[in-house]
Amino acid sequence: MTDPHSSNNHSQRSSHDGSEGSSDSRLVEAHSQLAKNKEEPSEGFSSLPIVIVFLFCGFGFWAGVYLTRNAGGFSANSFDLDAPRLVADSGPKAFEPDLAKGQALFIQQCSACHQATGLGVPGAFPPLAGSPWPLGNDERIIKIVLAGLAGEIEVKGTKYNGNMPNIGAGLKDAQVANIVSYVRSAWGNNAEAVTDVKVAEVRKAIGGRAQYSPKEILEAHPLETK
Amino acid sequence: MSQEHSSSRSSVSRIDASVSLPVRLFIISSILWLLVASVLSLIVALKLQVPSFLSDCAWFTYGRLEVLQRNAFIYGWASNALFALNLWIMSSLARFELKSSWLPVLGGLVWNLTLTYGLIQVLLGQLNGFALLEMPKEVAPAMVVAFLFAALWPAVAFARRPTGNVFVSQWYIIGATFVFPVITVVAQLMLLWCPTLGVMQALVHSWFYQNLILLWLGGSALSAIYYFIAKESGRTISAYYLATVGFWTYFLFASWTGPATLLGAPIPVWLQSVGVVAALMMLVPIVITAVNFFGTLAPRSGIAQSWNNTTLRFVLVGTVSFIVSALLSVVFSTRSLNALVRFTEFTQAQEHLAVYSFVSMVIFGAAYYILPRLTGSFWPSAKLVHLHFWASTLGSLLFVVAGLNHGWAAHGRTDFAVSALPGLVAAALLFVGHFAFALNAFGMLTAEEAPSSRRSY
Amino acid sequence: MKNLNLILAGVFFTLAASFGGLLLSGQVQLGQLNRAPAEEGGPLFPAKEPGLAIQGRQVYISLGCVACHTQQVRPAGQGNDIARGWAARPSVARDYILQSQVLIGSHRLGPDLVNYGARVKSDDELHTYLRTSVAGSVMPAYGFLYTQSKDGSFRPTEDAVALVAYLKSLKIDYSSPEAKLKQ
To answer: Which chain A residues are Cβ-neighbours of B92 within 8 angstroms?
Structure first.
């Protein structure tokens, strides 16, 4: 068998004899020189580095976009990329006020003045139980919780000169909705619950405003007479 | 043929002589394991064609034999051979003479004995369900220790080299050698000794598996490609300044690609997406290595010259396979395409492309270069070399093309029709090639023991 | 790039980064999963495995069944697993928390088994499959799991009984908080 590649192998073999060490040294040396002169002098200006840099930037950009779109919010519970879209197709989920949470928040945030019984302290803090203020139009009570109320008001025949801070400004929409829904349904009160969407709307409408005066709030939302 | 050249036998260089014993041990054991794995893959392919073949005994079920085949191939053949390659290439480049060769020899012996013990246990039914971690858990500590003894020497050679200069192959060898013990210890701890909860196990396993294939096997093979292209073509690597970037990006991104092999699995989607991004970012090192390799070989009809050189011919097939396999895994890491071919023969073919057509072909090429320099004699038969090259190349081409085609055709179907015949033919071809290789290698190694070929320094 | 320690430190960093980014953060998210009820106050899922099923898993592993069978069903948008009727919902991480070795598999030469217990009709049917295989299937017959008594009938060995108990325990026919069954 005439075998060019085997004879080539042999010639390689003999040229290699005895010079192996130097040839490996030469290989290392030559490449170390190359590594030192970053540019290849013989080629002059090379466009390769620029193309590669652009390519890499493109990859990096794509990676960022891909991850933001396909990471399922980095949640431990997301196993199906299509799942969130399917939920969105079936419409937004209705807000269910959690009255237990509302009660807990009320105890925490409001009961120091209005008392856990909702009866307030006569002459100092107005009652919520049986009061027309939190009932009826829900925007009134949401606005008061979000922005506060300062000035003289009259509730169930008793005059109060209170100063309620903007409790709701530091709470989330859902938390405010839970508190307000609780107040509107506890102690014999009977008005429909409010949603977090409604709270968000009102919060957006009033912005970061100061406390309401009684006159201002009643002009916007007069008390409903029974 | 060996006769006519026996007079021209030359001395073996001192460096080669110093590593001769361990390198021989590694190569001989790797070839023996290769034969074992080839026989096993023939049986496994036959069992797909004739399911009742050897099915009367629990020892020879498809599941166990497939495990044996994979472990014998990766740990027996590829890892042993890469011990030899890494040691030889590194000591050549670093001008390092191994003072006492008994430590790597001891490591090699322990490695092979442990592997034998582990595989016998697998045959007897003591196995785990994690690919390439199937052997009983007491095997792993012994294998890690054996690995350190067997594979540490390239790092020693690097640390003690007389000149400060380095070549890219040396980085890859250091990196690959570092990766193996770390990932094995972590994976064994998190999977077998104190198992993590639920699907975390699958995640840990994917991390281990990708690192093992891409970094330990792939990294070592890349080092050999860089070395032999520069050495055998006598050219300097083109765009060499990019090789540093290639090295770091390869190691950085490859170790994140694990979850890309788990698309659709019950792990959070963000982990899967991170894997997909890492798989795509692998384009960076692929482009760089492709520019390095083909930029070096392509000008002045270098490819044609390489084709006439035994070592470079194998390395060339390995290089092309590396790029094709890397590109395939990039493309088929995209969710929509992955969904079609996942779990099919397609992924098997992809894996074959990586561990056989890429890694093993490079090892063959390197062995054709190293063994003559180690023994001071020539390959006994050029015909067997030819036979080996064509049988291996065509066999793996057939396996890959048939697997890709079958896997692709399987999507949307609801049966499990397996076209086992191409796989069987491919396994037979590979077996023939490996047998030719083994015959040639053992012919050379034993001929050299004859008194007429005593070396003189 | 000439200093050994520098290269080792760099490679260590790349491994450590992926270890932290993938495995540690995965562990933080998935390491504490508990069983959960399908509906308020209902029984907790996944159900505790019967002791025989735990033994059966060892048989499943030891025969290498994972080489051909997966135990995972992908979401409907990714592959046709659900369309093939293997389960009514994709599998999620919580389904696997009680399993000592998770065998989700990576290669299918046969059907997925994650919900097999809900699909199979009876023990006898399953024993027949195992003993004689199915016509046209590449699955071999596992005859060595059975002994033949004098009257010609086949008796399953302990391994076969355990394996069948294990296969029957594989079920995702309940809603989990991450993946509800379609009503």
So the answer is: 20, 24
